[in-house]
Amino acid sequence: QVQLVESGGGLVQAGGSLRLSCAASGRTFSNTMGWFRQAPGKEREFVAAISRSAGSTFYADSVKGRSTISRDNAKNTVYLQMTSLKPEDTAVYYCAAKAPLGSASDLRFYNYWGQGTQVTVSS
After folding, report:
1. Could you say which DSSP state residue 89 is in?
2. pLDDT at 10 (0 to 100)
3. Which residues contact 35 (CB under 8 A, 6 or more apart)?
4. Rounded to the nearest 10 degrees, how much is the dihedral formed by the CA atoms of 24, 30, 34, 35?
5. Burial annotation 45-74 (CB, 10 A radius, 16+ → b, else e)
6. In what order do the strands lie in the sheet with 77-82?
7. Other CB atoms closer than 10 Å to residue 115's CB: what's the count?
């Protein structure tokens, strides 16, 4: 059974910080892991991804410089540290495990998804 469970979301004021966590079970954690987000009325979009060895990281332009993705393979957990949060960062954030092939920023290549955690940034 594959499970991805996100945590760490919440309500924060603009300029604040949050750290999201994603605990993974099963063999999926050997894959590249990614974070995506979906705001109300908008499509799900890429936020960040990290390779299996953590040697490569990828970020959307909208969060670059404000967010850091990391992983602890011993704990089967991937993190997304977000700083200088803006109201436009408000969304449900999803953790996902990527298939072996395909672009890290393309959600079509992710085959396992968590249930999401809500992040709300107030102005």
Report:
1. G
2. 97
3. 20, 22, 47, 48, 49, 69, 78, 80, 93, 94, 95, 96
4. 10
5. ebbbbbeeeeeeebbbeebeeebbbebeee
6. 3-7, 18-25, 77-82, 67-72
7. 11
Instruction: Report which of 119, 93, 116 is spatially closest to residue 16, judged by C-alpha positions.
Output: 119
Per-residue pLDDT of the chain in tens (123 residues, 90 and over written 9): 679 999 999 999 999 999 999 999 877 667 899 999 999 999 999 999 999 888 899 999 999 999 999 999 999 999 999 999 999 999 999 999 998 889 999 999 999 999 999 999 999
Structure tokens at 104: 């890290």
Which residues pair with residue 45 across a beta bridge? Answer: 37
Residue type for position 81: Q
C-alpha to C-alpha distance for 29 and 73, rounded to whole angstroms: 8
Rounded to 5 degrees, φ, ψ at 80 are -135, 105
